[in-house]
Amino acid sequence: MKNRKKLLQKALGISFIASIVIFQSCKKSFLDVNPAGNVAATQFWKTQADATSAVGAMYANLHEWTNIAFAPIAVESMGSDDVNKGSTASDASFMNDFQNFSANSGEGQISDFWGGEYKTINFANQILDNIPAINMDAALKARYLAEAKFIRAYAYFRLVRAFGGVPLRLHVPKGASEYNLPRATQAQVYGAIETDLTDAASVLPQSYSAIDIGHVTKGAALALHAKIALYQKKWSEVITYTNQVMALGYSLFPNYEQMFRTNNKNNSESIFEIQCLLIPNNPNASNSQYSQVQGVRGVTGGGWGFNVPSADLAAAYETGDPRRDATIIFRGETTPEGDVIAASGDNPMYNQKSYVPFSLYVSGFNEGCQQDKIVLRYAEVLLMNAEASNELGNAAAALIPLEMVRARARAGNNAILPKIITTDQTALRTAIYNERRVELAMEFDRYFDVIRQGRGAAVFGVRGWKAGKNEVWPLPQNEIDLSAGTLTQNPGY
């Protein structure tokens, strides 16, 4: 039993606090590892400083490899028609199994994604279970608990849309019987997410002072709640939550291409983004590989060249839409930041949204480690509002936020993007789907968008996608084995 418990602890990431990495504070340096090292669990969870360190560790975990690099690319992006594997043909050829939907339950990236999200959930659960007993500032305590609930909800959202129902772990296990949980239903997981987000939104502030930029806000909780409602087709709730976000003062960043550059982090459009920094003299803490794995291949300061835009995506933009050139780095071009991309190379296109100008590369650090990953932004809130309004039969209301998104793309670029004026529900639905595709391209939503819209077979069928199976990925076989059959596999795998 002890050996089995240890295996389950390892699989679920339960042993986090016994070797917790302590972070200096929850300001920008919450990503900077304290050289003091590890603190035993019996000495931790005593003070407000301990609580602050644990929250910092929770955020820093978000840019860890399994949360932001290969596994998310495989599970959340590679099935999409917007991307190709990239790199060279022989490099990481297992990624092709996600492109042709032949990935099986033994695939390592599926296991890594699962483990990464449960590790995130464990960080949040440690905070939620232990901070309440700490004698500390009451308002800060409430805020930290709300932040942990958001992070847990975010991790469960990533799991439920990838796998369907999953084990619902809302506390750190306290006994052997609490390690091996069966799958909850998809509805139960969504219900737990909604509870966490409702609680979080009631406590979180609308904004922070500069010292705490990057922590989750009320707007983030409401925006994610709207997205949860979108996936469940709860259209009235989508309207409710997006309207609340739209009243909080967010605005579309004027320059679409510049919105994703490192000098415009946490801008007026950003609702929640994973903070990634290049910390001088500390490459181990500067560990984000989000940009590196997708960067332009074959140049100093570029990257590995995975998850590249597809020709299908390039063709999806209307003539003159500036978002095309702002999303895709084309072979042979010169970027707006002055980097010359060779006219020959392994891949004809690369992801410009993850791009960091080559001049910012520092030897000894991951390329682009300072590039944040935007998770939620205001344009998506507007498009969710438009989609829900149209589904409720209010085309006039849907056209208003849709035009706001298109107007930003049009402004200052001399782009000829006509206003969409149709009030036919079917035609407008198609227009909104298309707008989501080009506005949010390469942001890890397209694959799941197509599935939730019921278009998987139509869009992905040519590559082997099958209804009744490929709406979700298989559960990792090692997790099923560890559970001794308590976990059951998804149909068809």
Describe this structure in words.
The protein is mainly alpha-helical. It has a domain at 1-81 and 106-216 and 463-488: Serine Threonine Protein Phosphatase 5, Tetratricopeptide repeat (Alpha Horseshoe). Helices cover 43% and strands 7% of the residues. The chain is built from 19 helices and eight strands. The strands form four sheets. Strands 1-2 form a two-stranded antiparallel ribbon. Strands 3-5 form a two-stranded antiparallel sheet. Helix 2 (48-61) runs parallel beside helix 7 (138-163). The longest helix is centred in the first third of the chain and has 26 residues, at 138-163.
Layout of SSEs?
Elements: H1 2-12, E1 20-23, E2 33-39, H2 48-61, H3 65-68, H4 70-77, E3 83-86, H5 96-99, H6 108-130, H7 138-163, H8 186-201, H9 218-231, H10 235-246, E4 270-274, H11 290-294, E5 306-309, H12 311-316, H13 323-327, E6 328-330, E7 349-351, E8 373-377, H14 378-391, H15 395-410, H16 425-439, H17 446-452, H18 456-460, H19 477-482
Antiparallel strand pairs: 1-2, 3-5, 4-8, 6-7
Helix pairs in contact: 2-6, 2-7, 4-6, 6-7, 7-8, 7-9, 8-9, 9-10, 10-14, 14-15, 14-16, 15-16
How would you summarize this macromolecular structure in one to three sentences?
This protein is mainly alpha-helical and 493 residues long. It contains 19 helices and 8 strands. Mean pLDDT is 92; it is low at 1-37.
